[in-house]
Design goal:
The complex is a heterodimer of chains A (299) and B (287). Chain A is α+β, with helices and mostly antiparallel strands and 299 residues long. Chain A contains 10 helices and 4 strands. The two termini of chain A are 15 Å apart. Classes of the chains: A alpha+beta (299), B alpha/beta (287).
Chain lengths: 299, 287
Amino acid sequence: MGSTRASPRGVRYFLSEGAQAFRRNGLMSLAAVTTTVVTLLALGAALIVASTLEYIARQLESQVQAVVYVKDGLSGAAVDAVRARLASLPGVTGVVYVSKGEALDRLRKTLGSDVYMRDVLARNPLPASFVVDADRPDRLDGIAAAARRLPGVETATYGGSTAVRLLALTRMVRLGGAAVGAALALVALVIIASTIRLTVFARRAEIEVMRLVGATAWFIRWPFVIEGAITGACGAAVAFAAVAGLYALVVHGARDSLPFLPLPGPEQVALSLSWKLMAWGIVIGVVGSLLAVRRYLRA
Amino acid sequence: MEPRRSRNVTARAAVPPGVPGAVPEDGETAARARGDGAAGRAGVAVEPLPPGVPEPAPEVAAIEFDRVSKTYPNGVVAVRDVSLSIAPGEFVFIVGPTGTGKSTLMKMIYREELPTSGRVLVDGRDVTRLPARHVPFLRRRVGVVFQDFKLLPRRTARENVAFALEVTGVPSREVPRRVADVLEVVGLAGRADALPGEMSAGEQQRVSIARALVHRPPLLLADEPTGNLDPDTSWEIMQLLSQINLRATTVVVTTHDKMVVDVLRRRVIALDAGAVVRDQRRGRYGG
């Protein structure tokens, strides 16, 4: 840690030296930025997919409702019997019947008023169902299992069962993203280090003199660290624009075709993505630059 | 990999470097600083001082080698059991054939190389135990001049000298004056805006001397400073180094320049195969 680091003249010197070197290295800088972009694209995509899946899973999980579908053509008395049995299950706080007609109306509402189901479909394919409210989400598993055994019941589902599968998928996406990201980050690191080594080599005479006249190791390192940080930040900016733009497009499209899907908003996603990608980009750039100067600074 | 001694930081090494007038830690150091033990142990005759010449300051040696040996990783033994002491304000020639460890000896003073064994004390502080982060501060107190000048070709004389101040965080308002002063000292006030390529070899060496002096170091090392210069220019450079010595700077010069050594009659330390073979108060090149 050098005493010179705090001097404002020093800071300007480091920034201009770092920026100059970045420009002077031209094609190599471009290669380094591109590798960083690819790395962070993979990382960003994995982050978005994982966080979207998790968002959906959490939404489902938080629902304290199970849906019990009844068989088609059940009589009114049979429906009442099922309702009574459901209401008596432990943890059940409410049972609401949704007829085939109501189910179709609800679907139409979520899909938007301009869709006319009756024009498309000859007959209503939706089953009648009971929406069962529970006092706690963890009761739903038992309620669904008991409901499935009732006569006249087709099947029973609840959000949590889907959520469990989605969360498992989320974990896999995260793990996969981390593995691919780590491998790519290693490549980016090596390329950034090689690029900055060009600068180190071009400036070896200056480095030698600096060491000789008593410049501290950090004073010598800073311009290279800044060159690395610029490389990483450029890569992060491009990757962020690509991933965030793509996600905004996807969400926009999904709102038209899959309006019932709960997706996190693009602004919210962009916000959390921006600093994560920027942080990773800069970390990769800085570590690469430190690798590049290490040999030249060994006392 | 360079051989390193124990890494533990002693109380002495922890003292911030660059503090002038370091106090010897024990009587032993002070005794060695007089040079009475060092040369005698190596079995080298020291010429008695002529009457009237004062003994070197008895406090702390500017430089002290204490049984220093250096073997490079490739097995070359550059320095063999060297013990010597240079008092503050001395002017010393180190002479000897090429490859006898003169440069290695110099490098160990400013911690470019570490000895394989033994201690190197600068201002009473063992630089072999100096933590790496303190080395830059040692170098601000030890000016170094080389045969090949090591100037930055795209900077003017003024900028080359200013560079040494800028990269060590000297406030910018102090830089122009200090650079002008030191260019004056080396006789280059009128050539401040010349690039190294536009200057003669002698002028370039003056720039490099100015750069070495701009931190006002108490110690100046010159490793073959006239190796690339013609005899007249060499003589000028040596005279400049003598003048610098008169301003109370300790000067150590390695050289092959027999004429200069024989005319100046300063202390001469002769090395052969890495060992001190002669140490004379008012010596000649050939003994």
